[in-house]
Specification:
Layout: H1 7-28
Length: 45
């Protein structure tokens, strides 16, 4: 019996893993990584 997975969760997991891998590669190359809190993106700080 084949069970169908949750495509949305699978896509989200793939996106998160891709971001982490690219972040790790950038850090290994010595590129500065700027961290921004997502809730502050729309504020006028």
């Amino acid at each position: 019996m084949k069970i169908q997975g949750n495509c949305w969760a699978t896509a989200l997991t793939t996106d998160v893993l891709g971001i982490l891998i690219h972040g790790g590669n950038a850090k290994a190359m010595g590129i500065t990584i700027k961290q921004i809190h997502p809730l502050l993106l729309g504020s006028n700080l």
